[in-house]
Amino acid sequence: MTAEPLGHAAAGEPASPAASAPPAASASAAASASAAVPPTVDVVPVVPGLHMLRFPIGQAYVWRDDDRGGGPASLTLLDAGWAGAEEVLVRALRGIGGPGARLRRIVLTHAHRDHVGAAGALAARYGCEVLAHRLDAPVVRGEEPVPEPDLTEWEVPLYERGIATVPEAPPTRVDREVEDGDVLDFGGGARVVHIPGHTPGSIAVHLPRHGVLVTGDTVASVGGVAFGVLHVDRAAAVESMRRLSRLEPLRAVCFGHGDPLTADAAAVLRAAAEAARA
Question: Which of 52, 106, 81, 104 is nearest to 169 (CA)?
Fold first, then answer.
């Protein structure tokens, strides 16, 4: 597929909504209302080459590879935010990469609506590749329902007031199904780490050359780095968090929810993983 420059793209057409875990009626109504209003996106530099795109709920990341010959930058989008957010994402991508930059790929850490949302529209617009783990790919495509989380009592209102109020993601094509250990062609070699538990096909992306780790929702950083929420299999997610804490090097850890960790990243993540309980 040929990726269009970010400064010369034609609008893509959104597809029909995908099936998902049924939210409470009030949350469903809120999601329908929010779908009509494009969300705001804050662009936050993290480390050289990496920016965070912060939505009202959840966040995505952009990695920029500069061409050594002086050509246009190559961008990788790690998660794609909300459905209906493609125009604000286009503006963010232009600001990060410049009008000549190309969006090469979208890597989805898992199949939840606040991570898949705009992926299909952006892929249609730029002809870029969409990647997801093979276990979550059928959910992303709309072929299987989103697996329901094993909610603790205190997570029920969090779910109803949070993720269930985000617009549902439309069915989205997946061009490449990735596996644990696959190395992707950006950031000097980005390694896929399969971390089941939040969803069966959750992945993290580790850039060893830069010490950057993007964890998806297995780990969060809301009021401090801690075990994430809304997992399908909490015990598996704890083990996945501990696996992430053993990766090296770790200089910046980026989460699906909460501020990136850039100070003492390895030690802080390791301590949080040791404290995690299913």
Answer: 81
